[in-house]
Design goal:
mainly beta; six-stranded antiparallel sheet; 32 strands; about 10% helix
Length: about 625
């Protein structure tokens, strides 16, 4: 199957069609809009769209190699690039003259999570795009640096520039003549960087292990970093997951007062200045100078895009670990449930349930809803059950005898607490998302090394699992809809990724999937309004490129993958965010040209194609050339 595809060169551009936001959590914000969208994007019968796997588009051939391409009949447009000004007084992009003040007024680097939120005025041509900026690639940002030595060789101006380029962006977008662009000087535009004051809240706020010389209260930290995936709350705020911090810190683990705590949180063999040189510019990133600073990261950050004056908040009740995301659902009684994956080999799947229900009529009543509730960790059984084990001080082994004197202790040492409860070690849980139509949850497990010291378990059946897999969790339904707060779910295997033709690999997708209908290393997930599952991979693996794949979760074509989009060489595509009307999808393109040791090796300067500029992580918008819905029955 090698159907025509639309391939872009470095300068290829196309105008997007109509758009507004379509994150799965929009089902909680506006159920009527979701139902209308689902009707507009209803699944075609499998027989009518067999050539397209029941998805209504002709997929790309995965043999395209490391080229940017989108399925036939679609177009992609650049919406925002690293360094694009967000205010009219921001200087033009010029990485040869690094200035942290300039970077803090420009769109950040290495965008990952995206959310598109409609504004209250109901204008379909306006909305807020919220984007995470995960980590820097200094050797691909500045000329003359090598990847292995950049941390020590960067100028302090360059180091501070990277600190300002990480964090988050909030950008008002407006559509004119079918093209989405940034609204310069919008009152909503905002940058959160590695030096932005962030409030610490919840049971671990003020904990002795969060106190530092600069913050003896343990209640305010400067900045956020390693912001990977996230989620949107029912009241319209954005949750940003801090996915680990070790690369940002320097120093000697052996000289730290609690090396066992660092080791349990994967702080191993730190480079003297950290991987990005931050400890050279700010001594709080030296663990020997400020041993508690690492404990102030690896939380979930909540930001209100509609209130630029409100400080971001780290919600410690949701636990400390490598947060890949924080996706929300509602229990039948109105309590909010947040699904949280710990993106590391042999770590765990978590769930948080608020103590109080969501109030749809009073947004301010939900302001600190995520500070009170129960964090649980998953244990999968061979009988197909998932038991949620509460991480509550005083319950089971989480007592003073094991070093837990408060709930704050439990949360600072979330991983050790989960160890004691006997949670199931997982193969790098990343995407972790409820289907807004059915309530079933899909978990993407990106994979794990061949040395599974913990051994296989029912939910991770392959000892060597470089390709990863997908699980489906099924909450019970007692007649009021799926109960996301129940103590026990069911689970089943959705797909084992990899090449089904490879002997001994054990890959499993739809039984009629062809030799090109497979992927590996599933990462970010999204659902469109009709219930199709969209999967971003993080490899690039044997395909020599990552991709955005689509498949049905129900019916005759369940678990039959089709390649919809391939990002440029070295890049990963992340976090699809659909418009509410289904007319388009925003996608983050992260680290183009990654894999090259320096800018001197980079030939394709995506997306500008200008040899004087470095590759630029960007947000793109994909739409149909005929203006129709992204997925329908017109194959």
């Amino acid at each position: 199957m090698d159907w025509p595809e639309r391939v872009f060169n470095d300068k290829g551009r196309a105008a997007p069609a109509r758009a507004r936001r379509g994150e799965p959590i929009s089902a909680l914000i506006d159920r009527r809009r979701l139902l209308l969208g689902a009707a507009a994007l209803s699944l075609a019968p499998a027989a009518a769209a067999a050539a397209a796997g029941g998805l209504g588009f002709r997929p790309l051939s995965p043999s395209i190699g490391p080229r940017e391409a989108v399925a036939e009949g679609y177009q992609r447009a650049i919406v925002l690039r690293w360094g694009d000004p967000l205010w009219s007084d921001a200087p033009a992009f010029d990485p040869s003259r690094p200035d942290a003040r300039a970077a803090a007024r420009q769109f950040g680097f290495n965008n990952d999570f995206t959310a598109f939120l409609p504004l209250d005025d109901g204008d379909p041509d306006r909305g807020l795009l919220v984007v995470n900026h995960e980590y820097p690639n200094p050797h691909l940002m500045f000329a003359g640096l090598q990847e292995t030595t950049a941390a020590a060789e960067m100028s302090l101006d360059q180091v501070r520039f990277t600190m300002a380029a990480c964090g988050m962006s909030v950008v008002e977008l407006r559509r004119r003549a079918g093209v989405w662009t940034c609204v310069l000087d919008s009152p909503f535009n905002r940058r959160v960087t590695a030096t932005t004051p962030v409030r610490i809240s919840g049971p671990a706020a003020g904990h002795p292990r969060l106190r530092t010389g600069a913050d003896p209260t343990g209640r305010q930290v400067l900045g956020t970093h390693d912001n990977c995936n996230g989620g949107v709350t029912p009241w319209g705020t954005v949750l940003s997951g801090e996915e680990g911090s070790a690369d940002f810190f320097g120093g000697a683990v052996s000289g730290h007062p609690d090396p066992a705590h660092l080791a349990r949180n994967h702080y191993d063999d730190l480079e003297p200045h950290g991987r990005y040189g931050w400890a050279r510019a700010d001594r709080r990133f030296d663990i020997n100078h400020e041993p508690n600073e690492p404990n102030r990261f690896e939380w979930v950050v909540e930001i209100d895009p509609f209130d630029p004056e409100a400080a971001p908040v780290k919600r410690t009740a949701l636990g400390r670990f490598a947060h890949e995301g924080a996706q929300c659902a509602l229990a039948p009684d109105g309590r909010v449930v947040v699904y949280l994956g710990d993106d590391w080999e042999y770590e765990y799947c978590y769930r948080f349930v608020t103590a109080r229900p969501f109030d749809p009529n009073d947004r301010t009543a939900n302001r600190d809803l995520l500070d009170e509730g129960v964090l649980s960790v998953a244990r999968f059984s061979a009988e197909g059950a998932v038991d949620w084990l509460p991480l509550v001080h005083g319950v089971g082994p989480l007592t003073a005898q094991n070093g837990f004197h408060s709930q704050g202790d439990v949360l600072v040492e979330t991983r050790r607490a989960a160890d004691l409860l006997g949670a199931t070690p997982m193969d790098s849980p990343e995407g972790y998302l409820p289907d807004p139509r059915t309530g079933r949850i899909i978990i993407a497990l990106t994979g794990a090394g061949e040395d599974r010291t913990a051994g296989t378990n029912p939910a991770n059946p392959r000892r060597a699992n470089a390709a990863g897999h997908l699980l489906e969790l099924i909450p019970p339904d007692a007649g009021q809809g799926p109960d996301h707060a129940a103590d026990r779910f069911a689970w089943t295997l959705f797909a084992l990724c990899g090449d089904p033709a490879e002997p001994g690999e054990g890959a499993r997708f739809h039984p009629e999937a062809g030799p090109e209908d497979w992927f590996e290393a599933p990462d970010n997930l999204a659902f469109d309004a009709a219930g199709h599952l969209w999967v971003c991979t993080d490899g690039p693996g044997r395909r020599n490129h990552d991709g955005l794949w689509v498949m049905a979760t129900e019916g005759e074509t369940r678990a039959w993958p089709r390649l919809f989009y391939s990002p440029p060489a070295g890049a990963e595509c992340c976090s699809p965010a659909f418009t509410p009307d289904g007319s388009g999808v925003f996608v983050a393109i992260q680290h183009p040209a990654e894999g090259k040791a320096s800018l001197a090796e980079v030939t394709a300067r995506w997306p500008d194609g200008d040899p004087a500029l470095p590759p630029r992580p960007s947000v793109i918008f994909i739409s149909r050339t005929d203006g129709g819905p992204v997925v329908d029955d017109r194959a």
